[in-house]
Write a structure and sequence with these properties.
The protein has about 425 residues and is an alpha+beta fold. The protein is built from 16 helices and seven strands. β2 and β3 form a beta hairpin. It starts with 6 loop residues before the first helix and ends with a helix. Belongs to the 'phage' integrase family.
Length: about 425
């Protein structure tokens, strides 16, 4: 049916048994769709110049739009089609231009199997705190000047008026850069080009504070004293969480694991009979079976198993396992003579392997589950089952015991003159 679409004409339309279309005689391609329920919606239909694709677009319902208002919108859509622009792509572009930083963050962290819980938490935390003022803004509205100003503000004031740490500022903008890149890949402009052609975070390249790699570890001369102290403290530890913390730290020195991997270790990942444990989802997403030295096996065999708690190092805390043995690390730092963190124990393990035990770097990388860039290892060599590295793991554990014995002997020598003088 064709007629000039006016209010009077539309008011006289009766709904039929199926969808009916009433086309406007003034503007070719402009029409009204009427459903059997009586719903009336203005539409526009035409072919996109150059592509030959036919496009039908909803303008809006009658009542919200008058016939004249809908006709004006239809003319604009038809004009764009004659210029080779598909109105559907333009609508997607308009929608994409409104996507907020928070919406991009939500989509980014919700991808199944892509991120660990800790990574999700860090990303959401930065959007919720560092970039709170931008969270509800369209992500395309974030500019280079905004990034530079916020970065400098973080360095001088931090989040709560305190001087910020460069490491935190760098991490925050690494997160923002990743979110903007993701938005650029997921959303396109009407012509098919990326929604965000240039990531504004890239402008910080010359502004970012370059951080020196951390090298903190237990120094060679203190390794024995540290290992000795841990053993002595364990013999007098009667509180469950205290014992778990000490055993966790000892396990870190015996394996070189990341704290998150060791603290969340479950009994079903451990095979004491064959002397290995399994990391199904480590930080580098490379599942691996790792060897246990005799000392590590002995440590685990002595660990009590708690009913209804699957963790090797259980805790009364909410997580169910020890997460951060902070108090113990402060105490251990006093023995080491410098501040020590759980990750510093990983560096200590690596230095013992490379420097003291002369274990080649390739094997040391495997023992610490570092991603190797060796082509043969990546494509032709089994780097998942590493039980064959048990001799190297044993060599490191034996070195710790040797150094502890030396430290114990030195302690006796230092005490002897005092005893005689007394």
């Amino acid at each position: 049916m064709a007629s000039k679409l006016t209010k009077g004409y539309i008011d006289r339309i009766k709904a039929g048994a199926k969808d009916e279309f009433h086309w406007d005689t003034d503007v070719k391609g402009f029409g009204l769709r009427v459903t059997p329920t009586g719903k009336m919606t203005f539409i526009v239909q035409g072919r996109v110049e150059g592509s030959g694709k036919e496009a039908r677009i909803t303008v809006g319902p009658f009542g919200v739009f008058t016939a004249e208002q809908a006709r004006d919108v239809a003319r604009e859509h038809l004009r764009n089609m004659r210029m080779g622009l598909d109105p559907r792509d333009m609508k997607k572009q308009d929608d994409a231009l409104k996507v907020t930083l928070q919406a991009v963050c939500d989509a980014y962290v919700s991808r199944p199997g892509k991120l660990k819980a800790t990574s999700k938490h860090a990303i959401e935390r930065h959007v919720r705190t560092t970039f709170l003022a931008w969270a509800s803004k369209p992500i395309v509205s974030i500019t280079e000047d905004m990034c530079k100003a916020r970065y400098r503000e973080l360095l001088t004031k931090g989040l709560r008026g305190k001087k910020g740490a460069p490491g935190q500022a760098n991490q925050a903008f690494a997160v923002l850069g990743a979110l903007i890149n993701y938005a650029g890949r997921q959303h396109k402009r009407a012509d098919g080009s990326p929604l965000i052609a240039h990531n504004p975070v890239a402008s910080l390249k010359d502004d970012k504070v370059k951080l020196k790699p951390r090298t903190t570890r237990v120094l060679d001369a203190k390794v024995g004293a540290v290992w000795l102290a841990l053993g002595q403290w364990r013999t007098i530890a009667h509180n469950r969480d205290t014992a778990s913390s000490i055993d966790l730290v000892r396990f870190l020195l015996l394996t070189g694991l990341r704290i998150s991997e060791a603290s969340s270790l479950k009994w079903d990942q451990v095979n004491l009979e064959d002397g290995y444990f399994h990391l199904p989802n480590p930080k580098n997403a490379h599942p691996v079976f790792m060897p246990l030295a005799a000392q590590a096996t002995e440590l685990l065999e002595a660990r009590p198993r708690v009913d209804d708690n699957p963790y090797v190092f259980p805790s009364w805390g909410k997580a169910g396992h020890i997460k951060d043995p902070r108090d113990l690390m402060k105490k251990l730092s006093g023995v080491a003579g410098n501040p020590i963190t759980p990750h510093d124990l990983r560096r200590t393990y690596t230095n013992i392997a490379l420097r003291s035990c002369r274990i080649e770097k390739f094997r040391t990388d495997l023992l610490t589950n570092h991603i190797t860039r060796d082509v043969t290892a990546e494509h032709y060599f089994d780097t998942t089952n590493l039980q064959w590295l048990q001799p190297e793991a044993q060599q490191i554990a034996d070195f710790l015991d040797q150094q502890a014995a030396i430290a114990a002997s030195d302690n006796v020598k230092r005490l002897t003159p005092r005893t005689e003088a007394a």
